[in-house]
Each structure stands twice: as structure tokens, then as C-alpha cells.
Amino acid sequence: MPQIHQTAIVAPQARLADDVVVGPYCVIGADVELAAGVSLKSHVVIEGRTTIGERTRIFPFASIGHEPQDLKYGGEESTLVIGSDNTIREYVTMNPGTAGGGMVTRVGNHCLFMVGAHVAHDCQVGDHVILVNNATLSGHVIVEDYAILGGLSAVHQFVRIGRHAMIGGMSGVERDVIPYGLVMGDRARLNGVNIVGMQRRGFSREDIQGLRNAYGCLFGEGGTLIDRIGEVERRFAGIRPVDELIAFIRADSNRAICQPKGANDV
What we know:
The structure is a single chain. The chain is α/β, with parallel strands linked by helices. It has helices at residues 195-200, 205-218, 225-236, 240-250; strands at 3-4, 9-10, 15-16, 21-22, 27-28, 33-34, 39-40, 45-46, 49-52, 57-58, 63-64, 79-82, 87-88, 93-94, 104-107, 112-113, 118-119, 124-125, 130-131, 136-137, 142-143, 148-149, 154-155, 160-161, 166-167, 172-173, 181-184, 189-193. The chain has two domains: 3-140, Hexapeptide repeat proteins (UDP N-Acetylglucosamine Acyltransferase, domain 1); 198-250, Udp N-acetylglucosamine O-acyltransferase, Domain 2. The strands form three sheets. Strands 1-4-7-10-13-16-19-22-25-27-28 form an eleven-stranded mixed beta sheet. 41% of the residues are buried.
């Protein structure tokens, strides 16, 4: 049977795996499902149609699954799906989806959400993502695998953050961030390639150098961005990080691409 502290309030309809641990003063709603190994430390509140995957740990005063902070939300039966092996620290908030965004907010596996991080309605967060203290995602944001968002950063709605990107602390991100990109600033601008992150994750020297060369070509002077994309494809096709970068830029988006300071807006 689940280990439920005597001070916790768990709705009879909630579905808890046998080895779930519910600490003191937690509150769990009727439509919540907690998979094997989930641990709630204390004072955690989980409501709504929320599913949490195996071995995820949630720390005190986190608020998970309450209705979105969206004035258009009309009580629709949307969901929040959180994967396995995540760590959700104190005061983190996560909201379910809305009718205007696909009805689901989704968080992947092996993510770390530090104190005060926020995941708004209809966000799609990949695997191995880190949100440092008080990093916040507006609605409809996409964060791809291995991205890191620095403390006190804020991401505008509908922005995409590419794989292995690094967002500097206290940055306001209004535009899409390319995979492997490094951005910073109160209105974030692209500041190079996340070389350190790539090295830590075992990328080859050839892949790193190829991406650096492609970056220099893509954001160099002369011609239009479309022209430079074509040149990068001709010169660097077949290098996996470069292929991911080009695919990201060519994908449909509501936002322009974040570029280096001084570059022309796209």
C-alpha cells in the first residue's frame, strides 16, 4: 500500500501505485495518478487531471496541476502529464493545458525544476531539461531536450528553445533560440554556441568544430539569412548538430530567431 502520512488528504478516487510516499500535509485531488516510486516530501498540492511518472520527487510547497493562469480558460478538461525521474523542488508551479493549445502540458523525463520555477499552460518540455531557480515559461513554450534555463530567466509565450541550448540568468527570451545556442541579456541575444555543454555531453571534436563553422557562416555578414542557410546546407550537410540547427530554423514558428547583437531582425 502507498505510504500516506496521517496528516495528508488524498481523494479516494486518486490512483496511487503501491510504493508511492505521501508526506505530511500533502493534498492530492481525485483525478491525480501517481506512478511507482513517486515521492511527495510534504505540503505538496496536486490537483486536476495530472499524471506523474515513476520515481519523480516533489518537494514542499510545490503546486502542481491547478487551473491555468489564462483568462481564456473555461474549465475544459485539460491535462498535465509529467514523466519519470524528475525532481521538482520547492514552490514550483505547473499548470495543465487549454483548448487553445492542445489541451495538454507535457514534461519529459529526468528534468530538474529548481526553487520557484514555473511551467505554464500548454508548454512542451523535453527530457533532461533544467530550469534554475525562478526560471519561468509562459504559455505554449517548447523546450527541447537538454536545454538549461538560468535563474530568473523568463520565456515569452510560443517561443521555442532548441536542444542543448543555454539561457543565461536573468534573460528575457522573446525569440526562438537555436539548438546549441547560448543566449543572454535582459532582452536575450545570441552569444555563440554552447561549447561547454556539448563537451560535457560527449560530442565529438568534429561535430563541435563543424557547428562552430556553420554558426559563423549562418550569422556572418553578407546576403540574407535565407541565402546563408542555403550556404550552410551546401557546406556542412551531414553534421548532425548542423542538420538539427537547419531543421529548427526552417520549421514553422510564431517567433523570429534570436540573433547576435547587431544582426538584422528576421
